[in-house]
Amino acid sequence: METATFIEKIYRGSLDARVPASFKILRDTRKVAGHLAAFTAVLRDYPAAAIEEEGRIPAEMLQRMGAVGLFGMTIPESYGGLGFNLWEYLQVVEELARLDISAGLVSLAHLSIGVKGIVLFGNESQKTRYLPPAASGKTIFAFALTEPLIGSDAQHIETAARLSKDGSHYILNGRKTYITNANYAGGVTVFAQLDPKRPGFMGAFIVETDREGVRIGKDMPKMGLKASSTAAIHFKDVRVPVENLLGRPGDGFKIAMTILNYGRLGLGAASAGMMRQSFEDMMKRSSTRIQFSVPIRDFPLVQEKIVRARVYSFISSAMNDFVAGLLEASPRKNAAIETSHCKLFGTTHGWDAVYDALQVAGGAGYLSTQPYEKRMRDFRVTTVFEGTTEIHSIYPPLFALRKLAAQQRAHGKGIRGIVFLLRELFRRTDWPLYFDHPVLEKASRVARANAASIRKMLCLGLLLYGRKVSEKEFFLRRITTLSVHMLGILAALSRMEADRKAGALSADDVGMLRYFALEAAEARRKNRTVFDSRIEKLNGETFEAMCRSWTKARG
Ligand code: MYA
């Protein structure tokens, strides 16, 4: 079965042009608009400062959130939800992030990851049983993968589930930590190893929190997102009926990763919303703040911050919509690289925008009475959870390299494998994408050049470094940089081409694409090499020397 993702196919040399051409319903706001007004009305009725102080969303507010459908947005109507498609959902995420991500997170984590496993992989009886109370908010869900000793290396979790002798239930033991929604949750999707001899052979279980042996810790004190609950969950000899296993034994890791694709997309959307809000705030402030007799928006260093927030918000939102299109067409599809890019691009630029908005607000920006402090505290974790920036900076090329190495091996050891890689290296990039608009066409050529550079780097990287390629993190990050820019351009082209066909191409969008494509071209010039720069090499040497003296100083 072909498992290559849209981007992996590009890495291999061919762009499937039907994909960017196929997303036409991107931004239909009709279904969402009415609901959004109801959602924001609820959030506005409960001042964020009071919730922060309390560190918890009041029961009455949770009930009202449930009544307007906030907990059922993406749950099918047949199970009591609102039946939003992914685009509709992401629009809501963007808007809630602008308003208050802390209060919004309880429903967004419930839908993006908590209950998503049941929606995607549940059988009819699991859906009938769990989705209606999840949609109403009666049963809020959490997602439990992370453990005290295991964060990024998710295949090696230690929580274990053993099948009972009579085969009627599993016995679950282990500890999960940093679990979002823990103290709001009535249900948890829990991941556990099924066979001590086969790490990664996991099960995904629906576990009610009132089962005997489930103990939820106290909420952890956090710097932000104070309305959300984060706690550890302990499982001690918890009897989980076999009927509560999602999919088949062994599917657990894939289920976890597939769910995380949705969480990462949600984070991309929250980031796009945050950048948009930062843009609005910077425009407002810089237009009215007069220094040296002029509004500060006249200064290029201020303009640079504003332009970036707006351009990256546009690209981020286009990327999320584009990838949502892939998942709408095939909800369990492997979109590992694509969703990773959305998360990485969104959260890193989102953080910069939140930081810049405070900067443009000057001394006033530092006051707690302004929105920036809370926003920075709330947003900071986004580059950490759902896969760190570091993981997302190296993993996409690693996925591709592993497959390329497997293909190389299949062609035979030694010279045959090398010939295969050399052929790949010199293969032309098939890029059947043409635009009769100069800016769009030029941007497409930049993306194509990135695609060609990426393929060369993958092949050369394997030839030069062999197995050690996975340790070459600066090299891997350079490929990711090229790849993220490529996806950003393709996504913007897809959105703009649809607008153009509808006679609604926006001049602002054209300007933003021109800016981003130029940035991408500059980034390519810097990043298209397989060799580490002198400073990157020196980084390792300097670190080794530091380690020696640090260790020596401590005896
Ligand atoms: S939840 C906890 C988050 N934890 C993580 O994100 C863990 C990070 N680690 C990983 O993702 C994985 O372990 C990595 C892979 C990527 C490192 N889709 O051998 P492999 C398949 C589909 O490469 P590894 C939290 O933070 C792959 O093809 N399939 O794996 C809450 C292969 O399959 P096959 C995928 O090297 C935050 C197999 O898996 C994917 O071990 C709350 C093995 O792959 C994928 N993505 O490591 C947030 N990846 O064998 C709420 C891999 O068939 C968000 N595979 O080829 C709410 C929304 C927004 C609100 C915002 C408010 C702030």
Structure overview:
The protein is of the alpha+beta class. The protein has four domains: 17-136, Orthogonal Bundle (Butyryl-Coa Dehydrogenase, subunit A, domain 1); 141-253, Beta Barrel (Butyryl-CoA Dehydrogenase, subunit A, domain 2), CATH 2.40.110; 260-369, Up-down Bundle (Butyryl-CoA Dehydrogenase, subunit A, domain 3), CATH 1.20.140.10; 390-546, Butyryl-CoA Dehydrogenase, subunit A, domain 3. The protein has 18 helices and ten strands. It has helices at residues 6-11, 18-21, 30-45, 48-54, 59-67, 86-114, 116-121, 124-136, 252-288, 300-329, 336-365, 372-379, 389-410, 415-426, 438-465, 473-501, 507-527, 534-553; strands at 140-144, 160-163, 169-180, 185-193, 202-208, 214-216, 230-241, 245-250, 290-291, 294-295. The strands form three sheets. A four-stranded mixed β-sheet has the order 1-4-5-8. Helix 10 packs antiparallel against helix 11, helix 10 (300-329) packs across helix 17 (507-527) and helix 16 runs antiparallel to helix 17. The longest helix has 37 residues, at 252-288. It is globular. The protein binds tetradecanoyl-COA.
Concise synopsis of the structure shown:
The chain is an alpha+beta fold. It has 18 helices and 10 strands. The strands form 3 sheets. Strands 1-4-5-8 form a 4-stranded mixed β-sheet. The protein has a 4-stranded antiparallel β-sheet with strand order 2-3-7-6, with no helix packed on it.
